[in-house]
Amino acid sequence: IPGSLEAIARLSQAGYRVAIATNQSGIGRGYFNQTTLSEIHQKMRSYVKDKGGEINFIAHCPHLPEEQCYCRKPQPGLLQQIAAHFGLKSLESVPMVGDNLKDLQAAAAEGCTPVLVQTGNGMFTMKQGNLPENAVMYRDLADFVSKFLFSNSCS
Predict the structure, then answer these.
(1) Nearest-CA neighbor of 3 among 117, 102, 153, 95?
(2) N or C, which end of the chain has less CB nearby within 10 Å?
(3) 96: β partners
């Protein structure tokens, strides 16, 4: 999505650590394997690095939805993996950006601030409703990052 790589780089350059929590049931379905996913993640990290940023950690769930595992969003397991990776006791008020209800539900379950972007599935998600009470919305990741960095520079 245009501006996303630069937005991640801006967060990194401002001293924030960036983590990704992603459901990847394509592994469980046999569409691709862990090696392929690792290559995709490495390519994504390389694109962000080329813009001057860094993705510090990626947590993924390879399970099928019907397995009902604790790491698959909307469950908070991936966010707990992220907290453990960074040695954090809590992700309270940490923004979690996503484009679907499962992202926002996982964020709310772990005490994060759920942030909906209108790109990807975001507009569909917004129209469905049932968003967590404290969800906030932005046009896209670049819009969120600009406003987030501005508000934190004024604090």
Answers:
(1) 117
(2) C
(3) 114
